[in-house]
Here is the input.
Amino acid sequence: MSIQDIPASLHFLSYFKTERTYEDVTARANQLKLKIYTIHRFLLDDLSEQEQGGTCLVIGFAPLRDQDIKEAVSRLAACVG
Here is the structure.
């Protein structure tokens, strides 16, 4: 067995109470050059934001350098706010 230093990450789900739809959030993320994954990518059924209790995004930080996290969070806030 060998262990390699690969930037794998811990992912978690974040629910955002926002008036924006998944389509709006995704479009805004594309404009801001922020790569996001909505929960829809991982579901068999296409649930609405209301059925899920908010807009749910899968969050992971592995590819980010420490100095880039603040900017990424700022862009994420602009997407869902």
About this structure: The chain has one domain: 12-80. The first helix runs from residue 22 to 31.
